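Cross-posting from the modeling subforum.

Setting up a comparison between two proteins and wanted a second pair of eyes on the formatting. Protein 1 (sequence, then structure tokens):
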Amino acid sequence: MNDPTRVDTVRDGAVLVITLQRTARRNAFDRQLADALDAALNTLDDDPALRAGVLTGGTDMFSAGSDLASNGDYVTERGGEYGVIRRQRRKPLIAAVEGVALGGGMEVVLSCDMVVAADTARFGLPEVMRGLLPTCGALFRTAQRLPANVARELVLTGLPMDASRAHALGLVNAVTPPGQALERAVAMAQQLAANAPLSVQASLGAMNAMLAMGDAQGWEATAAALNVIRSSEDLQEGIRAFFEKRAPVWKGC
């Protein structure tokens, strides 16, 4: 059952609108938020009356990614990290992004099929600024969605990209004025839902299967990279500095 304190779901005809509701923590994922999103996406996949979904974080932000206090406890059986990262979805899911989609928040965006963003939205992978690295698909999915040199820029600098640049590079399908991303995303989802459902699902499955052909190697490479930093002093320093709200002092070991 969906947790109304974490995720809100609204049916708009054949479209399921899913809203993350942990705004006090910038929609950062903990166990409860991951389980709630997992349940909502299970409903989207399993209910034959639903044909498309929209995922939003509300009018102020999309998601800041992982709640570091959760210590990685946000993996679900069916959806993987956050309930969505490794999910084999049958129906299209559109991200409606207002504000920031950072770290795992951007990795959730990369797990969706299309993206609508307000012109004030920002997309980024700041993990290296904390002695971490993206572990939920961004190390290979950014290079699927963006030119390789831009993917490297996002991952290695940690600096965010604005919506206009993301649109120009093809990450974002449509840009709207602030506060209108959800409306545009729902309209797009309704257009998808008006088409023959088996045709949409078969086409989506084929395209996503081709894109995912290198995922196994991508997850292996991500795990290898994580092993390099897992026991490093810099990792511990980055986390301490984050909670202490100060600049980290790196040692390179």
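Protein 2 (same layout):
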Amino acid sequence: MLKILIIDDDIITRKGIQSLMPWDKHDMQIVGEASNGKKALEFLCSNEVDLALVDLDMPIMNGITFISKARSLYPNLNYVVLTVHTEFEYIQKVLRLGAIDYIVKTHFDQEDFDSILERIKASISKKNSSIQKSSNPKWKESKILYSNIYALVTVGMEPETDESIFQFWELNELVDFQDIYEIIPGVWVFTDNRHEFVFPENFSNIMLLRISDVNDLTYTQLGKLLRNYKNDQFFYDYQPVRKINHKRAYELQENIYIIDNTTFETLKRDWVSLNWIHENELFDKIKLDLKNSKLKFSQLYHLLLTLENVWNTSYSKMAGQTLELPSSFQHWSEVENWLIQIYEKTDLIDSKNRYPSEITKSILLAKQYIDTHFFLPIDTTEIARNAHMSYTYFSRCFHDIVGISFSNYCTQSRINQAKEYLLLTSNSIQQIAFDVGYKDEKYFSRIFKKNTGLTPSSYRKSKSEGVIDMY
């Protein structure tokens, strides 16, 4: 029988909670009430309580102060917060205090009291199970006696993720299951003979793994494998679907970062070229290539940042807005969605200036030639002739399709390459100028400063300060 203490300065609320909720049905008993945190602490001195229902806004001692004091004095006491607030940020704050749940008093008449008490009881049971396991650390060194084990792996531990996990336990009658272990932060493992599970409707940012070949591993060894997996492969493996995903134990420790610099530069060049904007099949191909490359996140983010800068140079004026790269990505699906949004946005812009496919391909071939021959003298008239167009028509088509003029694109390509040489090599400014197609170092420096606001030497110096983007 769980013993309950109600703490609220409103006597009507206290009496309503006592009379309306089916406590006996759920093996719960009201053992006391208090009008503020100070009186509640006095009650706890001489009475055994399992759960406190706490209002946060009270005189003399509010709920927040009460919880902070009671947590150190009564570590096994559970808290459910009574509140009139419904804002998400406020609820997050409440849960961070250590509360296992909250009840919105303004919705009290609308609530399903049975579901509230079932949810509270399940949370207490889960917490007590975790306490029992943490008090017996030897379980980590014991061997796994099964060939297969399940793992719930989370992207992050936001309150809604935590709630989804509890719902998973409840739906599959695992709430009182003693062999559920939080093996590393955000990853729970358990054994079960089932091959099918019931998933909550909201199961985002969580993946259920069935890991085979784990017999004779200890939980500590499995934890190391899962930590390696979560830090590396999970970013690319996660899919927002409700199903069981299969892995063998040895696959959790595979080193996926095997891409060489040449392959990375090829990937980056494919995206920075923007040729995929005009070819759906090419976009799908290089998107799959990027996922399969399984770049380290720092490499992936660098590539996406480069893409952002190049797109803004080519399309921001036409779009009337700049592209913004999110500060981080939780998993590959978010990266993929961001790339698809760029593709659709750019395709919408280009649809206003759509040319026959033969013209578009000719312009893209010219653009690709500049990207790979920036170090050579470039004759616009000759390139237009090779594209079977007049100089004037070629220039107009190039501007409409690529987003900037042919001459400006040539300059941009050379300056972008010069930036890379300045940051990644120790070559002299004169050598770099020659390598990107300028015979005159002073003229190169003037063009570089006009486009970047810095001289080449100042730009190189900025490398140690870490404040300049590559593109």
